[in-house]
Amino acid sequence: MSDSLHLVCPSCHAVNRLPISRLDQGPRCGQCRQALFTGQPLELTGATFGKHVSRNDIPVLVDFWASWCGPCRMMAPQFVRAASLLEPQVRLAKVDTEAEPTLGARYGIRSIPTLALFKGGREIARQSGAMAAQDIVRWVRTQL
Ligand SMILES: [Zn+2]
Questions:
Q1: What is the whole-number distance in angstroms between the Cα of residue 15 and the centre of ligand 1?
Q2: Given CB 3.0 to 4.6 Å as the disulfide criterion, which of 10, 18, 58, 129 pairs with 42?
């Protein structure tokens, strides 16, 4: 088993290789020096989505949402809270389906909010509907 893992920087999108022992020690990006974990979900676009989902060795939890969706706005602070609880074991990210319609279509997102959990570049679980932070955390841990 490997004792290091790859993490994609949320700021510059460089792929970092990090000893697992440093994961929970506030690691910084070797390229841009920004924190690799900020306690905030990362906004993904068509340009960055594939890299984060396929190159991160930690699972990536994606919230597909839109600004016109009331339940999405309601869940947003819960998702931020879930990020602070799940990092650095899981990367949390958001996709604005209105700004990025091709991503929503590619993953067949029919209702929002939808949470999709990716591991090793593959979607392993999906859940639709607004959830509280604790329920998000519990759901993710059940899948992993
Ligand atoms: Zn960086």
A1: 8
A2: 10
Q: How far is the CA of 59 from the centre of ligand 1 (A)?
A: 19
In the chain, the percentage of residues whose pLDDT exceeds 70 is: 99
Residue 2 pLDDT: 73
Query: What is the tens place of the pLDDT at every residue in 31-55?
Result: 999 999 999 999 999 999 999 999 9
Active site residue 72: yes
12 is catalytic: no
* 125 exposure class (CB count in 10 Å sphere: 0-12, 13-18, 19+): middle
Q: Spell out which residues have Cβ within 5 A of ligand 1, the ion.
A: 9, 11-12, 14, 29, 31-32
